[in-house]
Specification:
Blueprint: E1 2-6, H1 9-26, E2 31-34, H2 41-52, E3 61-64, E4 66-68, H3 79-86, E5 98-99, H4 108-121, E6 127-130, E7 152-155, H5 158-164, E8 177-180, H6 183-187, E9 191-196, H7 202-210, E10 228-233, H8 243-251
Parallel strand pairs: 1-10, 2-3, 2-6, 3-5, 6-9, 9-10
Antiparallel strand pairs: 4-8, 7-8
Bound molecules: fructose -6-phosphate.
Residues 35-39, 65-66, 131-133, 137-139 line the site of fructose -6-phosphate (F6R).
Length: 255
Amino acid sequence: MDVFICKDSEEASRLAGEQIIKQIRANPALVLGLATGSTPLRLYKELIKACQTGTDFSRVRSFNLDEYVGLPSDHPKSYRTFMNDNLFSHLNIRLENTHVPNGMAHDIPAHCAAYEAEIKAAGGIDVQVLGIGSDGHIGFNEPTSSLASRTRIVTLAEQTLHDNARFFANASDVPHYAISMGVGTILEAKQCVMLCFGANKAKAVKGAIEGGISQFNPASALQMHPNTVVYLDEAAATDLQLKDDYRWASTHKPQ
Ligand code: F6R
């Protein structure tokens, strides 16, 4: 795991953006795994800026991590709407090349299997963008999710319902179920780029990076991934024991 402790979320998003943009320039048909929530918003602004200044997204393909069950794709709070509003509509990406699980799927297990098959048919995810929940979830893989899990329907933890209530008019409007790529699905991405910002993520970040690998903190499974880069702001890095070592290593990378 490469850990970068940045001055703030702006610097972290810029660095993450730079390396993703570099990969799109090298491989214009890159397959991106994408997340929603507050965390990737600045990163998405970096991607939009890159598109406006000449990076071509017309062959880029994308797969989102998750979607709420029961929200139609055109619902204002669906993750499809979030992605269209915050990223896709500002890029020259082809909407048919963007994939978000269908929260209204009739046969959810069949839809999940088809989603996995589509990822495979695209050649797998090249770069998976991740945030982290305050309970250590990635995607909507809540604590005690199997570290081998695949795309499936999941029940959101009470903590997540509480954390996500800020996006809805009433806390009771937060859907209780979602379709989420599994931890096993995420681990198959060629690279994982995790962004973690704010003091409320510090405990989860400590567990993910320095704790034992455990389904209690699903993000800790990334310790088994051969190419994971984590960008933190100072607040999210607060509880890390080896902060100085991460700073040293990140400023002394081989060329
Ligand atoms: C959403 C997702 C979640 C979020 C996490 C953090 O697609 O994958 O795992 O990354 O809940 O959310 P924010 O960024 O809102 O703190």
